[in-house]
Amino acid sequence: MTPTQPPPFPPPEPPRPPGAGDGGGHGHPHGHGHSHAHGPAAPVSQHLRKVIAAILIPFAAAVLIGLAVLWPGGAPAHERTGVGFDRQTQHATVTKVVELSCQSVNASGGVPTGDTSTAEGSSAQQQADGTCKKATIRVDTGKDKGRTFDEIVQPDQSRQLSEGQKVVVAYEPSAPDDLQYSVTDVDRRFPLALLAGIFALAVVAVGRLRGVMALVALAISFLVLNFFVLPAILQGSNPLVVAVVGASAIMLIALYLCHGPSARTSVAVLGTLISLLLIGVLGSVFIGWAALTGNTDDNTGLIHGLYPGIDMSGLLLAGVIIGSLGVLDDVTVTQTSAVWELHEANPSTGWRGLYRAGIRIGRDHIASVVNTLVLAYAGAALPLLLLFSIAQSSVGTVANSELVAEEIVRTLIGSIGLVASVPVTTALAALVVSADRPSARTPGRAGAQEAAQAPEARPPTMRGGRGRRRKR
User: Fold this and answer.
1) Are residues 113 and 212 in the same domain?
2) How many domains does the chain have?
3) Which of 217, 393, 407, 252 minimizes the C-alpha distance to 320?
4) Run means of pLDDT, 10 residues per run, the chain, 472 residues
5) Which regions are flagged for Pro residues bias (predicted)?
6) 231 and 368 inside one domain
7) Which of 110, 303, 398, 402 is the most exposed place for a label (fewest CB within 10 A)?
8) Calpha distance 166→95 (Å, rounded)
């Protein structure tokens, strides 16, 4: 090798005196390797911003039109049935609890007969031989505030009352005076509020400003659900259309609020939108094919009884779409960020190379996310699965029952949408960043990095870090 030939790539960096080349903050060749996660994404060209805006602006406009057309203006009124959640409730406090013989308070007062090995026989025996409790409860809210009533607690009841305990009582005005109030549940407002406060503090402590934005987005999501999605469905609007419009609004607000208005966020929005459409199509096909009615328990039966016009199978599909949205956001944002960082690390990589590298990251994400989703649904249906296990039913019989089939369809459709979101979002992100026009970019980190590395690629004219200065 002659002295005038350039050294093999990459050339060793010559030693620099302190402060040389650092005046503008771009002299360090690795100075950007630690800034991707803390600063905004490198800006893309004006051309790409126009392309993305041409897709997302009509979509956002359609969502706003859908919200305006379907906006319900409140849930429709109905006459209370006094069943389940559809009854008047007040808050109360247990002021006194005394023990007494169950024989003295039970109406029958006779000795139970029959097989005590059964649940009914065992319960009757406990009520006859056990010790009951008489609780005095004081109503703390409502027009009867300060009123007290007594309630008998049987020994086999799962919820036992204690003095000073806060409870929720149901009020039935048409019942006799001594039977108008009854304990229905425990007042859990304080522990739930405390847990929510701990959650908010943890999010803000770890996420800082991003955590605050995430909490704001979470609050807006609940507002959209409570003031748009649920009342619109109750008023008879198509549950699928309402769910798509509501989920799209939540997606736009949450992603842009948490991650900022950038091309990276816009690609995540597009990937989420395509995956939601796939989930909607698959859900519509298989819920109809499997003849799932969506009316499988007391709560859905009560809803159907109060509002017969509601499409319960559409309500099931709406639940699948909204339930999948949160995990979809996580997957699409992660994949988009991964592709963006890969491009920042090596801007010369083409879209195929970016896609292959991004999809390798996505495979690990798929394995963990799908398992999470399946276990979440299985955990929610655990008492039902335990019941089938007690009955010693076969796997086929359990899976064929509508209660379990509904959860299977919900899980598999959501999982298919999650799996599909990885290649879709990765391909979109790879195409966007690789199609960017470097000459049209706003000078940013990429341009600064190229400017910082340019002197290192030139053949050195003299030895030492001050060759050019000595030459002059």
Assistant:
1) no
2) 2
3) 407
4) 45 45 41 40 66 84 91 68 69 90 65 49 58 89 88 84 89 82 89 95 92 92 90 84 90 88 87 90 89 79 77 84 84 89 85 88 79 74 75 76 83 88 91 67 45 44 44 42
5) 1-18
6) yes
7) 110
8) 9
